[in-house]
Specification:
Organism: Abyssalbus ytuae
Largest sheet: 4 strands, antiparallel
InterPro entries: DUF1697 (IPR012545)
Strand content: 15-25%
Distance between the termini: 13 Å
Protein name: DUF1697 domain-containing protein
Helix content: 25-40%
Length: 179
């Protein structure tokens, strides 16, 4: 059985697209996923499956949400190995290790075009920094994510690819849960 990390995009944000994690856990178990664990309310899940196809798992999860709720939610499913690689390659971990509350990771649902990623460099970030990773961006939000001019909606608008952002505390917890 392989371990996977599921990141749902845009659920339980501002009272929209509400999904209770206890319900989600049961519904995922109904898809024959094993050892399902959720973390906080923003759609962070670790599970095991005998299925190896990310495409099949993603489709089943998105269809289950569509069938059980009155909305669609995009699912980003990563293998434990892929998640671990993203986690370990964060260049800010060594540079800003005492400021992990300012570290975030934006993960893309598809690979963005290099030219569109370059558009993000034109945004005045007021001290916020980012570095491109493997299908993700690593952020150091100097003044906090909530005050930044470069957040998930801005990123999606510029690069024309769906993305989901997690703070480093969440990334760390998901990594621990997947061990």
């Amino acid at each position: 059985m392989k371990t996977f990390i599921l990141l749902l995009r845009g659920i339980n944000v501002g009272g929209h697209k509400k999904i209770k994690m206890a319900e989600l856990k049961k519904q995922l178990e109904g898809l024959k996923l094993k050892d399902v664990q959720t973390y906080i309310q923003s759609g962070n899940v670790v599970f095991k499956s005998e299925k190896n196809s990310i495409v099949a798992l993603t489709g089943e999860i998105e269809n289950m949400i569509k069938e059980n709720y009155s909305f669609e939610a995009k699912a980003l499913v990563l293998t434990k190995q892929k998640f671990e690689a993203i986690f370990n390659k964060n260049p800010y971990l060594s540079q800003k290790q005492n400021e992990q509350e300012k570290l975030y990771c934006t993960l893309f649902f598809q690979t963005p075009e290099k030219e569109k990623l370059d558009l993000l460099k034109l945004i005045n970030t007021d001290g916020d920094e980012f570095i491109e990773g493997d299908n993700c961006l690593y952020f150091y939000y100097n003044n906090g994510y909530g005050k930044s001019k470069i957040n998930n909606p801005v990123i999606e608008n510029k690069i024309k690819v769906l993305a989901t952002t997690r703070n480093w505390k969440t990334m760390t917890k998901l990594r621990e849960m997947a061990l």
